[in-house]
Design brief:
By secondary structure, the chain is mainly alpha-helical. The protein has one domain. The chain contains 3 helices and no strands. α2 runs antiparallel to α3. The radius of gyration is 19 Å and the shape is elongated. The N and C termini lie far apart (about 40 Å). This is YrhK domain-containing protein. Keywords: Membrane, Transmembrane, Transmembrane helix. It holds the Pfam family YrhK.
Length: about 80
């Protein structure tokens, strides 16, 4: 399975990665409240940010691929005849 087909076939994976990244980012943010947990907070902040970025990039590729195959929203896909 190619990366392109994976991106097209499993958009929920990108959403899940983004959601997990958001949760980790949030937990890391809360841990900044206490000085004893700042080191953990920094790493959770970094890991969560990376997860959010991966989720957003995957979603962008999915939308791009969907538009490439089906046309942009409101546009007729190439090769589809119009009825008059």
């Amino acid at each position: 399975m190619s990366v392109r087909s994976f991106v097209r076939e499993f958009p929920v994976v990108h959403l899940a990665i983004g959601v997990v990244g958001n949760v980790i980012f949030f937990v890391g943010s809360v841990l900044f409240i206490w000085s004893w947990s700042e080191q953990i907070a920094v790493w959770l902040f970094i890991v969560g940010s990376f997860g959010m970025m991966l989720g957003a990039i995957g979603q962008a590729f999915y939308i791009h691929e969907r538009h490439r195959l089906n046309g942009a929203p409101g546009e007729r896909p190439a090769g589809v005849a119009t009825r008059n």
